C-alpha cells in the first residue's frame, strides 16, 4: 500500500480516537450524522490532515529547527497543534464539519494523535519490513 494511503488511514484512526477521547472539545461530523456520514467526515478530515502533514509540516519544521532544538522539542507540540488548527480551517473551507475548541485542546489532540499514530505505525512497520540493504 502506498505510504500516503497508509498515513491517511492511520491519521483517520488517530483523529477518530482523539475526537472520541476529547469529547465535545474536538468534533468530527455533526452529532446527528449516521455512521456512514461520520466515516466520510473522518476520511475527509484525515485526507486534509495527511496532506498538510506531508507538504506543510516538513517546511515548517525545517524552518523552525533552531527553535525546536532550543526548546528540546517542546516547540513540536506547538507546531503540531497549529497544524491541527490549520486542518480545522481548511476543512471548514470545504464544508466538512471538524472543530477543535482552541489552542490547548489542539495541543492535547495532537498529543493523542501522535501517540495513536506511533502505536499503529509500529504495527504497520512490523508487517512491512524494509528490504535488506
TrEMBL record:
InterPro entries: Phage_holin_4_2. It comes from the Bacteria. Keywords: Membrane, Transmembrane, Transmembrane helix. The chain crosses the membrane at residues 39-60, 67-90, 102-123. This is Phage holin family protein.
